């Protein structure tokens, strides 16, 4: 395979590399080759973690790696026991960040005071529940005379469209921003300058508390929880060192959010 200068630099397995490239630029091809070179260096399939953004991307990467290993087996290359690598590939650690974090949390659930049989609420169900909860919470606040001034300000701000789905989306978007930045709702509310800010944050806080209780009663975690808990576990020095011994190399296909960065930074600390 031919690679340009930047791609060749990214294939240097003796150093950490951050690769920024757009769609169709050959990024997955480079990651596939980097994976193969790690195997050629003597690292076992089980010692490499490759994290992708979607299950589809994980499957694509695994298939590309398989194709290249099969070619090496057919050519009779002896640099590595490629047949052994091929046999192990089905159980290779090539997955989404959520799957990777889920495995870490399940293996160490007791350290978090959790049952390892916890359930995972998917994005669709999570968003639906939050949307319904937001609608109910807003209805209660907007019908409460105590908040009539704040309600009027919001009416003016959103041009009397607060009941529409767009406003609920905005509220939930602010919630996600707060969670991704790892901020505490109580602290933000305390430091909010204007009454309208406090009001909006109070609404978001209540939505979040209802959602938290819902998950707690059902022994559930959502995708954000998985990453937060995994980062918490990897923040424990002894546990982190144990995972570093297990996984010699980690590759991340896409950093889509700060939660993913947090997990990787915790691992690399």
UniProtKB/TrEMBL annotation:
<dbReference type="InterPro" id="IPR027417">
    <property type="entry name" value="P-loop_NTPase"/>
</dbReference>
<dbReference type="GO" id="GO:0005829">
    <property type="term" value="C:cytosol"/>
</dbReference>
<keyword id="KW-0547">Nucleotide-binding</keyword>
<dbReference type="GO" id="GO:0000725">
    <property type="term" value="P:recombinational repair"/>
</dbReference>
<dbReference type="GO" id="GO:0005524">
    <property type="term" value="F:ATP binding"/>
</dbReference>
<dbReference type="Pfam" id="PF00580">
    <property type="entry name" value="UvrD-helicase"/>
</dbReference>
<protein>
    <submittedName>
        <fullName>UvrD-helicase domain-containing protein</fullName>
    </submittedName>
</protein>
<feature type="binding site">
    <location>
        <begin position="21"/>
        <end position="28"/>
    </location>
    <ligand>
        <name>ATP</name>
    </ligand>
</feature>
<keyword id="KW-0347">Helicase</keyword>
<dbReference type="GO" id="GO:0016787">
    <property type="term" value="F:hydrolase activity"/>
</dbReference>
<feature type="domain" description="UvrD-like helicase ATP-binding">
    <location>
        <begin position="1"/>
        <end position="269"/>
    </location>
</feature>
<keyword id="KW-0067">ATP-binding</keyword>
<dbReference type="GO" id="GO:0043138">
    <property type="term" value="F:3'-5' DNA helicase activity"/>
</dbReference>
<dbReference type="GO" id="GO:0033202">
    <property type="term" value="C:DNA helicase complex"/>
</dbReference>
<keyword id="KW-0378">Hydrolase</keyword>
<dbReference type="InterPro" id="IPR000212">
    <property type="entry name" value="DNA_helicase_UvrD/REP"/>
</dbReference>
<dbReference type="GO" id="GO:0003677">
    <property type="term" value="F:DNA binding"/>
</dbReference>
<dbReference type="InterPro" id="IPR014016">
    <property type="entry name" value="UvrD-like_ATP-bd"/>
</dbReference>
């Amino acid at each position: 395979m031919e690679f340009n200068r930047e791609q060749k630099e990214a294939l240097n397995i003796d150093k950490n590399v951050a690769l920024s490239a757009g769609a169709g630029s050959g990024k997955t091809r480079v990651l596939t080759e980097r994976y193969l070179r790690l195997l050629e260096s003597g690292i076992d399939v089980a010692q490499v973690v490759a994290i992708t953004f979607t299950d589809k991307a994980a499957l694509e990467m695994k298939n590309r790696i398989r194709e290249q290993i099969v070619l090496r087996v057919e050519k009779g290359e002896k640099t590595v026991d490629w047949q052994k690598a091929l046999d192990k590939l089905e159980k290779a650690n090539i997955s989404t960040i959520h799957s990777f974090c889920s495995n870490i949390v399940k293996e160490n659930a007791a350290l978090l005071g959790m049952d390892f049989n916890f359930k995972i609420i998917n994005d669709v169900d999570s968003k639906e529940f939050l949307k319904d909860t937001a609608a109910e919470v807003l209805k209660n606040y907007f019908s409460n005379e105590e908040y009539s001034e704040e309600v009027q300000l919001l009416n003016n701000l959103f041009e009397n469209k607060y009941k529409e789905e767009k406003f609920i989306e905005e509220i939930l978007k602010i919630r996600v921003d707060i969670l991704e930045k790892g901020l505490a709702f109580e602290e933000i509310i305390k430091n909010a300058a204007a009454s309208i800010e406090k009001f909006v944050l109070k609404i978001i806080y209540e939505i979040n508390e209802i959602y938290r209780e819902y998950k707690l009663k059902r022994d559930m975690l959502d995708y954000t929880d998985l990453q937060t808990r995994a980062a918490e576990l990897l923040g424990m020095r002894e546990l982190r060192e144990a995972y570093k011994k297990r996984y010699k190399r980690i590759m991340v296909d896409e950093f889509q959010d700060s939660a993913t960065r947090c997990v990787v930074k915790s691992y690399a600390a």
